[in-house]
Amino acid sequence: MPKATLNQSLIEKLTCITGNSKTDYFDTKTTGLLLKVLPTGRKTYYLRYKNLRGKQVECKLASADILKLSQVRELALQHLAQIAMGVDPFEEKKGLKDIPTFADFVAQSYVPHIKGYKKSWTTDISLLKNHLLPALGKLHLDEITRRHIVNLFSAHRAAHMPGSTNRIIILCRYIFNCAIKWETAGITRNPTAGIELYPENNKRERYLSADEAKRLFEILNDSQAKTLKYIVSMLLLTGARRNEVLNSKWEDFDIEHRLWKIEFNKTGRTRYVPLSDGAIQVLQALPVIKGCEYPFANPDTKKPFVGIFYAWDTARKKAGMPDLRIHDLRHSFASFLINGGRSLYEVQKILGHTQV
Question: Which of 256, 200, 239 has the alpha carbon at shortest distance from 326?
Fold first, then answer.
């Protein structure tokens, strides 16, 4: 390891010792400063020092083609002064490299997390792909400011209803909260903090009246989709979600104790739905498909229906209620319970809502 008092003219003449993969020339004037010369003639300045843990390390300063020796000596002295005061600039630089981009954090941490517990994770993937990643994906987490977030939400709101933008806000807020909770490098605060949700004036509430329910079931009785009337009846009599009914199994129903156990639901928590006389009558009236574990199955495939929209759409239009959604049956069930004297807490538990 040759030592020399480096100067600009000497640096231009220095070469790699024959047979070596590199040659280090140490400057006798500046502690720790060295010039690394490769057989190709490439010359690079490095600083060798003991870091804050007492370990000797070597970090690159600059190429000799970019900075002159006087500039490199000044830079080395600045770094050595910072290190002496307990601040390692090279560690800070290394820390910047450890900060993931928003896209990397989502792919490597967030998506694996939600796949493990959230049934509706595909919805998150869709929102990320179509809205969040195009705007934030290439930015590192420490680069994302409140201005980026506000611009994103404002642009989305210009083309979407308030409820749609609110889903984006909630998802974005949750992702950054996860990053903070998991102590991800580069983020100490949530840039969405304090950003309020948009008022949702487009929420639509629809409830079946007794006359409408009677008219609907008259049509369902004549429907070519023979299982539809049982599915709709179960939805209206239990307040369950469509997929909860479609994917239910005979083993889930305890007729003796009048309970329906729903395990794989939207919230990921098992809940028990009480079975009324009407719901039990529906189950008892169902045509049993031999060798099929699903009560409301497609009789041709013996598997749950993938979708029932076409049959439902036909029935609701014939009943004169083209605006009636399947989810409105759930609203109607809740309305019937409240009007029947049940408490909000009871209705919350039966429907499986996390909030009253």
Answer: 239
Residue with tokens 């305890």: 254
pTM over 0.70: no
The values of phi and psi at residue 260, to 5°, are: -120, 120
User: How confident is the model over 66-125, as pLDDT tens digits?
Assistant: 888 888 888 888 888 887 787 777 666 665 567 889 999 999 999 999 888 777 788 899
Residues in the chain: 356
